[in-house]
Amino acid sequence: MNSSASAATSLDFRAPRAVNVEGASIASVSDTRRFALSINARLVELPERALILPGFVDTHCHLMGLGLMASRVQLRGAASAAECARRMAERARTRPPGEWVIGFGWNQEEWGSGAMPDRAVLDAVLPDNPAVLIRIDSHASWCNTAALHAAGITEAAARERQPDGGTIVADASGRPTGILIDAAMALMERVIPPPTTDQQAGWIRESIAACLRLGITEVHDMNVEPERLHAMAGVADRGDMRLRCQVFLAGRNDAWKAVPKPAVLGPNVHAVGVKYFADGALGSRGALLLAPYSDAPDTSGLQLMTAGELAEAAAEPLERGYGVATHAIGDAAARVVLDGYERLRSGHAGALLRMEHAQTVHPDDLARFVWLNVVPAVQAVHCTSDAAMALARLGDERCATAYPWKSLRSHGLPVLGGSDFPIESADPLAGLRAFTDRTPPGANGPWHGEQRISPEEAVDAYTAWAPLGIPGRHRRGALAPGNDADIVVLDSDPFENLDSRVLLTIAGGAVAYDGRGA
Q1: E-only strand ranges, 124-252
Q2: ∠ CA(52), CA(207), CA(419), 5° rounding?
Q3: What is the pLDDT of residues 128-180, one digit of tens each?
Q4: Which range of residues forms the domain containing residue 341?
Q5: Of 137, 171, 189, at which residue does a domain stop?
Q6: pLDDT per residue over 261-284, tens digit each?
Q7: What is the CATH number of the domain that holds 321?
């Protein structure tokens, strides 16, 4: 696969076509005066302004996460640490003492000062239930004293047991504040009671239904731990995996070896890759930067793997036929990944190598994506939601080249479109608009608009280029005869109508969502 040569945009997505579906495939496509669709010789009624596109592919997400997060205390939009604590306490009132309470979505950048919270705020209202609050980027947790005690995280641990690639945050006196960053979160995760297989299966079904409502017909499910696979396979075996799920297994501690080579795990579920992490996230200052943080000059972030460690770890899955995807948000992490991939490429000329996020890439490293044939997988919605925080972390100069979609395209590279849901909205229409306008909520105009890409490129990021993100050749991503009939029908052009919505989602030739009566 040559990603650079494959990155040209597809046909004009606005050009009207008559699309005929037979069985699970597209039988024919022809020019016409307006979009028209027939399924097994039955004409589907569509409004005048309807737009037919290939099914959307979210190339970086966490499938079970949508359902899972719905079961947790929702902390998005909370205006303060106290508000987060209040929401958690409300849930705890329905639970017996000692039962765990888990929340998700807090963001200290929305609280004014930007300071990380302290466990004392939680202890005041949650003295009897272990409480863990996961930050919006999933790279930091805020825990109360009961949870810290359950995990054995003491002052001595903060002094002596700092994990590689993570931080147990402590105050000036050495007292743990309750904040765990990146690898330190594992100390807590191993003592939280695990969900049942039935619970996991329920979350997966909820997530599938949500994706289909949004026109998503395929996902690249990232960092899947072995304990999720049984539930996922069970859902598939019951015929409920109504979209295509490409699984990238967790690479940490060789967890991927639970599925030692690429395999079909069930109908529509394929193990195709292994996921690694080179650094953490920008919001928690875990992204690894070439120069110190503008708002914390005493740190440049966390390095979770060296280039040598990545090359050594990824060699075996590549030899067994897996693709490899590596998380890199900071510019130093991006360089580490490219260095590691350079070591791997000579022995694995045709293997799939992806970089996840690529939020900050030094301009000197952009050309290396081309000659190393590395596919960047980006999430446009991160840019618009992160803009103010990114400015604080990176400063003006680095922000000018951050979230570098146009720079990547200028080198002939595809950019794979995704959302990282449930961290961000799963809605591909939000992603399409973020690619093309880069305007943060409430802003008057684009944030570094020189890095915007065209509507055609944005659509290709979610459709035509998506197959470049998984190993092998696939007949998807375009409305063409012989391709899989994965299709989304919108009621109007999403770039012209901000209220555009999904009318139909067709997965493998079957109507998986029908919103025409909504």
Answers
A1: 131-135, 140-143, 166-170, 176-182, 216-224, 244-250
A2: 65
A3: 999 999 998 888 999 999 999 999 999 988 888 788 888 999 999 999 999 99
A4: 56-65+197-480
A5: 189
A6: 999 999 999 999 999 999 999 999
A7: 3.20.20.140
